[in-house]
UniProtKB/TrEMBL annotation:
InterPro entries associated with the record: G_crystallin-like
Keyword annotations of the record: Signal
Naturally occurring in which organism (per UniProt): Hyalella azteca (Amphipod)
Gene3D superfamilies registered for this protein in UniProt: Crystallins
Protein name per its UniProtKB record: Uncharacterized protein LOC108668890
Origin: domain of life: Eukaryota
Signal peptide limits: 1-19
Amino acid sequence: MKFIELWCFLAFITSSILNEKGVAGAGDFRYVTGYAGLNYTGDYYQFTDYTPDLSVVQMDNTIESGCGIGLWLLYDAVNYDPLADESECTFRSIGECRNWDFQCRNMISSLRYAGSPYGLNDNYYNLYEGTLFKGREFRGNTDAADLGDLDMAVSSLIVTGQSGWTFYTDVNFTGFSACVYADEHYTNGDIVHDYARVQYMSQLGLPDNSIRSVARGCLSERVLGHPGGERSGQDASD
Ligand SMILES: [Ca+2]
Ligand SMILES: [Ca+2]
C-alpha cells in the first residue's frame, strides 16, 4: 500500500513540475510544415525541433512554401550554415501559410527555431556564432556568467518574450553592455509572440565577437527596443 501511495505522489509531483515548466498549450504548439510545391502542395514534412540535415527526412533543397507557428531560421547548408555568408532566410508565423521568399525556395538544407523549447513567448535568448543567426549557438533563460564554447564568438542574437536581457563584453556581468527588448510584436487570437533579431553586433553598438556574459533584465544605459511595445495583428499578406 505504501508503495502505491508513493507512486501516486511521485506521479503527481512529476505532472506538477511539467506544468510549471510551461509545456506549450495546443494553441501555441511550435512547428513548421514545409511543402515541396508552392501554395502548400506536394510532399510535405512537419518539423517540431532542430533539424541539422533535411536529407534525413527527404526534404533537402526541396521546400517552397510552409505553414507554422514560431520564428524558424532556414539555412542553405547543413548544420545551420557554419560558414556564414550574407544571406538570411526566416519564416515567422502564428498559424498562417506563406510561399517562402523566392531566394529561399528549393535550397533549405537545415532549420531550427529561435526562442524557448517550452512556451512560444517565454523569456529566452539565443546567441549565434555567425552573423544572421548562423553556426553554433548558446541559449538559455537564466543569467550566464560565461558563455562556454561561445566565449568571444557571438556575432548575432535573438531575444524572445517581454523581459529585457543585458549582454556584457566581459565575464561575470562586467565590461561594456547593451540591453535588448523585443521590438517585433505579433498576436493572433490569444497567442502572443515578441522578439528582437540582432543580425550584427554593430546594431548593439558592441564589437563583433565581444560578448562574454548575459543577465536577465535591462541593466545597461544602452537599450535596444522597449518594453510592452505595440503588437501587430497577424496579417496574411505579411
Ligand atoms: Ca542547400
Ligand atoms: Ca563570431
